[in-house]
Amino acid sequence: MVLRVLDQRALPTRIRWRDVDGAESARDAIKTMVVRGAPLIGVVGAFGLALELSRRDPGPEAARALAERVSSARPTAVNLPRAVSRVLDSYLRGGANEALREAESILEYERESARMIGVHGEQLLMDGDVVLTHCNAGALATVEYGTALAPIRVAIEMGKRIRVIADETRPVLQGARLTAFELVKDGIDTTLISDTMVGYAMSKGLVNKVIVGADRVLMDGHVFNKIGTYQVAILARTHHVPFYVAMPLSTLDPTSSPEDVVIEERDPKEVLYVRGRRIAPRGVKVMNPAFDMTPPEYVSAIITERGIAEPPYRESLTELLGQAQQ
Ligand SMILES: CSC[C@H]1O[C@H](OP(=O)(O)O)[C@H](O)[C@@H]1O
Predict the structure, then answer these.
(1) Which end of the chain is more exposed for a tag (fewer CB within 10 A), N or C?
(2) What residues form DSSP beta bridges with 212?
């Protein structure tokens, strides 16, 4: 048995599939961003580990080592280690079949969470709104509805006229390549802008709301998301545009402090090249942090599958988490 995943590095110009049949192929698919997006890498990591455990039944020590290989593929999104840990615990507790059942349960959880984020988040959108989004937090980052794109999809399903502005999201271009791909395919009115145009669009009153996804959210509302999110949040605050974060509770990290979170530094080539063409001279230095942190004071509300959390976030997120654990 294998998990067939869409190679997102080839989108939007080519549809290319890749098989994940174990821990190493899952690690490689996640690390090289064949698949990306916090919930989706959790799902792929879970299945990669579960498929290997069900094929080899390697025993506890080897299983722990395999889990570590998958969990360490990317450091920032909390969904990955959480999902892998759930599969490992299931294997240690109940064997290989239990591990596969846990992976399937994680998939179903993310599918239903995405839909419910849409149902709750839709209430924040008004007919005629133009919603700006950053990076890709759609079906290609999760399962089906997405997170940031879920309220947009549900609002449109309910008859609201919603238009989207997607920024390109350098350097990996998830906005231009993935969000635009998804929304055009769905027939949703979408305008692509470069990252440098966000301030201009807001200054001209072209943006009514912002919704972004998340890779890790702390209990006090610090949001770790794609690089560039922080500056979108600052601009939204400056222009009095509500800035919403959409995330399943699987992305909530109840224990870490901001200084504990590792911001992934990716290959400088992602900045030096665009689709294989070099755009900067040899010898230039490069920074390539894949994520940044947005402090809670810039976050208008956090949309989850259990409802909408409003400041102060420690109280509201604790309440929603408590409901989820009942
Ligand atoms: C719904 S999680 C999507 C989240 O993941 C993206 O990062 P990457 O493309 O590097 O996996 C980005 O931060 C999105 O908001």
Answers:
(1) C
(2) 245
Nearest to 181 by CA among 6, 12, 16: 12
Question: Residue 326: pLDDT band by 50, 70, 90 thresholds?
Answer: confident
Q: Are 196 and 232 in contact, with CB atoms under 8 Å apart? A: no
- Which domains are delineated in the chain? 3-115 (1.20.120.420), 117-325 (3.40.50.10470)
Q: Atom 13, ligand 1: which residue's CA is nearest? A: 226
Q: Is 225 one of the annotated binding-site residues? A: yes
Q: What is the mean pLDDT of residues 257-279?
A: 97
pLDDT at 89: 98
- From the candidates 129, 167, 195, 215, give the one annotated as an active-site residue: 215
**Residue 156: what pLDDT?**
98
Q: Is 19 a catalytic residue?
A: no
CB 113 near ligand 1, within 6 Å = no
Q: Is 37 annotated as a binding residue?
A: yes
Q: Above 90 in pLDDT, residue 325?
A: no
**Ligand 1 center to residue 95 CA distance, Å?**
32
ipTM for the whole complex: 0.96
Query: Mean pLDDT, to the nearest integer, of 37-60?
Result: 97
237: enclosing H helix or E strand: helix 229-238
Q: CA geometry: angle at 318 spanning 315 and 321, to 5°?
A: 150
Taken in order 89, 95, 101, 103, the sign of the CA dihedral is: positive
Tell me, in angstroms, the distance from the centre of ligand 1 to residue 278's CA: 25
Query: How does strand 307-309 pair with strand 301-304?
Result: antiparallel
